[in-house]
Write a structure and sequence with these properties.
It is a single chain. It is built from 6 helices and 17 strands. It is α+β, with helices and mostly antiparallel strands and 306 residues long. Strands 6-5-4-3-2-1-9-8-7 form a 9-stranded antiparallel sheet. The protein is globular and about 60 Å long. It starts with a helix and ends with a strand.
Length: 306
């Protein structure tokens, strides 16, 4: 089965975050993770269309209504036509955006452009030149925009598909960047158990700046007699109101369903990273030291900042 570059970009965590978690948690070889994440792109429809998740998304969209045609602060990971690079477009409320990418020789670069959001259309412009990422300049307009969580969750131009991985809409921030919470073991059976970790505001992007509004989840399923756990990883965005938070790891799949034939190129069979919950909610307590995740057996106790 063939998968586009977009599938792996949207569901594999950025390289720096992946390396970090392999050091921090019990971790199998990268190739095993890669195979497992490919499998997650073909989960059953029961996972992808869970009524509970659909109801939760409706609740979220009611809590955070979308207002178009306003400048915004948000970061997108992008797949561009005929490019194998990981592109990041970081939009700012002053009408500018930064294009960031890492070369094959692990050099980070950042270039600035300008955008407008008028008449329900984003237009991106950047000067050209031999030392610029787009030698002939950039002048692209959105062909489709998907609102979700009260923001531009994803958009496409004629040359690019962009998925939101962070934003500046939350008025509160966690106690620190890379706020990593260890959750109690759950789903304990005779031969299996499950361990989860949640991270808020990671910095696994070129130049390693804090990605506000970002969330990362790692799920490990331990099976008796197996040397390595089954590992699933996904990252997404979260919104906060008071002490309550709401998060999604399924923007890419939702966007493919939303855009359909309006995508500029074939992105392959995009699915969801987790086999249980790809939209979650809960509460933040103890001055940011604890997370309660409603979908992860909260009666077992909170996830604790470490």
């Amino acid at each position: 089965m063939q998968y586009s570059v977009l599938v792996f970009k949207m569901f594999l965590p950025p390289k720096k975050l992946l390396n970090k978690y392999c050091k921090m948690k019990r971790c199998s070889k990268l190739i095993l993770i890669f195979i497992l994440l490919i499998s997650s792109c073909s989960e059953s429809d029961d996972v992808n269309t869970s009524p509970n998740e659909e109801n939760l998304i409706e609740t979220i969209n009611n809590l955070f209504p979308f207002t178009p045609n306003q400048n915004f602060e948000a970061l997108y990971i992008c797949a561009r036509r005929n490019s194998n690079l990981e592109w990041y477009f970081n939009f700012h409320v002053d009408g500018t955006f930064d294009v960031l990418f890492t070369t094959d020789t692990n050099q980070d670069f950042s270039f600035r452009g300008n955008y407008t959001y008028i008449n329900d259309q984003l237009t991106l412009r950047m000067d050209g030149g031999p030392a610029m990422p787009f030698p002939n300049g950039l002048n692209e307009s959105s062909t489709v925009i998907m609102p979700q969580f009260g923001l531009v969750a994803a958009f496409a131009t004629s040359e690019m598909v962009a998925i939101c991985i962070g934003h500046g809409f939350n008025s509160r921030q966690p106690p620190r960047v890379n706020a990593n919470y260890d959750c109690p073991n759950i789903n304990i059976q005779a031969a299996t158990d499950e361990d989860n970790a949640i991270e808020l505001v990671h910095s696994a992007v070129p130049t390693e700046f804090p990605v506000l509004g970002s969330i990362f989840r790692q799920k490990e399923t331990f099976v008796s007699g197996s040397a390595n756990p089954i590992i699933r990883r996904g990252y997404g965005i979260y919104r906060q109101t008071g002490n309550e938070f709401y998060a999604t790891f399924r923007i890419a799949e939702d966007f493919v369903d939303f855009a359909q034939s309006r995508l500029p190129f074939n992105v392959g069979n995009v699915g969801v990273p987790f086999d249980d919950f790809n939209v979650i909610n809960g509460s933040i307590g103890a001055n940011g030291q604890e997370l309660i995740v409603e979908q992860l057996q909260p009666d077992e106790g909170p996830c604790v900042l470490r």
